[in-house]
Amino acid sequence: MTDNHPELSGYEPNENYRPLRGKHFATILRVVVVLGLIALVVPGVLTTMRVASDTAANACATAVAQYYPFAVDFDARFDLAGPGGFGWQCYAIDQNERDTFVTSLGIIPSAPRQITPGTPS
Q: What is d(CA 30, CA 21) in angstroms, rounded to the nearest whole number?
């Protein structure tokens, strides 16, 4: 390699070099970019949580109706360390307001499926 760079011919460094943008503008730009990213990500996370919650409630209602027909109510909740492990858990609530574990719905609950009579589940 040589030290001869024809594209730099005539270039002389200047001591009065200033950046194109100021420090305050760069800071404001960074804040705007971070707020923009938050504005893009947060609605998606909230929508995903809402859909998962509704799906878990529907799947839990179906499971409770099938396995515990005399239950008064049901409860689908997200547990970090529940009886079925990490994820959504389904509980049946009886007349004395006791929770009975029904089934684990998983991390991402799925829609309840139609079970035909005589098929093992």
A: 13
Burial of 6 (0-12, 13-18, 19+ CB in 10 A): exposed
Q: For 109, which DSSP code? A: -
- Other residues' Cβ atoms within 10 Å of the Cβ of residue 91: 23
Which residues share a beta bridge with 76?
A: 90
Please check whether residue 71 is in contact with residue 94, taking contact to mean a CB–CB distance below 8 angstroms. yes
Decide: helix, strand or coil at residue 118: coil
Please state, as a whole number, how many other Cβ atoms lie within 10 Å of the Cβ of residue 56.
22
pTM: 0.66
The full DSSP string for 36-55 is HHHHHHHHHHHHHHHHHHHH
pLDDT tens-digit profile of 36-79? 999 999 999 999 999 999 999 999 998 888 888 888 999 999 98
Distance (Å, rounded) from C-alpha 3 to C-alpha 7?
Answer: 12
- Per-residue tokens: 7: 């594209």
